[in-house]
Design goal:
heterodimer, A: alpha+beta, Beta-Lactamase, 5 helices, 5 strands, globular, B: alpha+beta, Muramoyl-pentapeptide Carboxypeptidase, domain 2, 4-stranded antiparallel beta sheet
């Protein structure tokens, strides 16, 4: 039984340009995870362009479960500024509230990172502080509900 | 709540920024100075819009985004909302602030007032100069609005109009 765990997070710009992508696994499966993130971008586009068909709540930033695979669940989040956040988790019965909470903290970290005057908008986020903060958020994912 | 910033510091910083760009870096090139100041505003607006839209659903149309600028965004920046919003429904919006904070302490040289009839040539000059100096202070807020809107996916041009201080109108023209 795998633990509640996030294996990959990504920030994707409004032109589908990768701004930050990081996997959190021991195994050498970064490429596979990047592929999953890549595929999810189409699902995000579909959700946003046909909100009625997919039945997601209108214009909410949290897009919910994008698609499940055999081993993973992929969740998405789209900010007002058309920046996409993608998270891949191995936990197959994760609670929506946990993911929402994760995205909220992730978004806050992102906002702080791009508010750095030395950050160039549209370029990759190279801040070490951001990376550390993200990995802290990732590690604490699901802990609150476990206790 | 986040950290707070002293208002007088922001006022001084704005004044200093404008005077540095106009009198030191680009002393004889007012257009270039204006462009640089606008660019700084653009970056500020770009970053602030990211922060201030964090907890809200995405906007479905231009008007909603403009309303956000008028209400929430303006409140965060100036502790008041835009007083009047007009639109021609064809992509032009006029945002009027009856007491724009960054112009509230701006004064026109008293020597230029009242004397404009007697000495046409000499009196016209200082008044003109004052208007020019005031308009230099408006490139920064124009840039902020443009930066915020363009980050929300709305490319536009923003200009400011000062007919009677300290009221100020910002004209937003959305690029089709």
């Amino acid at each position: 039984m795998p633990e509640k765990m996030i294996v990959c997070v990504a920030v994707v710009g409004h032109q589908n340009n990768p701004l930050y992508i990081q996997s959190f696994t021991e195994a050498d499966d970064a490429l596979k995870l990047h592929h999953i993130v890549h595929c999810s971008l189409d699902v995000v586009d579909e959700r946003v362009n046909n909100p009625k068909k997919s039945g997601s709540p209108l214009n909410e930033t949290f897009l919910g479960l994008l698609y499940p695979t055999e081993n993973y669940k992929v969740y998405g989040y789209l900010t007002n500024t058309k920046v996409k956040f993608i998270v891949v988790t191995t936990d197959l019965d994760v609670r929506d509230a946990d993911v929402r909470n994760f995205f909220r903290r992730f978004h806050a970290a992102y906002v702080d990172a791009v508010s750095n005057p030395f950050h160039v908008p549209g370029k990759k986020i190279t801040s070490r502080t951001f990376a550390e903060r993200v990995s802290t958020i990732v590690k604490s994912f699901g802990l609150s509900s476990a206790g | 709540m986040g950290r707070e910033v002293s208002e007088s510091c922001v006022d001084s910083l704005l004044t200093e920024m404008v005077s540095s760009y106009c009198d030191r870096f680009y002393a004889n090139k007012p257009e270039l100075a204006a462009r640089r100041i606008e660019a700084i505003g653009f970056q500020v607006g770009h970053q602030l819009s990211e922060r201030y839209t964090m907890e809200r659903p995405r906007f479905s149309d231009h008007l909603e985004a403009i309303k956000f600028i008028c209400k929430d965004f303006w409140s965060e920046l100036f502790k008041k909302q835009i007083d009047n919003l007009k639109t021609n429904h064809r992509g032009t919006f006029v945002l009027q602030d009856n007491r724009f904070r960054w112009l509230a302490r701006m004064s026109v040289d008293p020597s230029s007032e009242g004397g404009d009839l007697s000495q046409d040539n000499s009196a016209g000059a200082p008044e003109n100069k004052a208007a020019q100096a005031t308009s230099m202070h408006l490139y920064f807020p124009c840039g902020i609005i443009r930066g915020a809107l363009s980050n929300l996916g709305i490319p536009c041009a923003v200009s400011a109009d000062i007919s009677n201080l300290p009221a100020c109108s910002f004209v937003v023209r959305i690029k089709a």
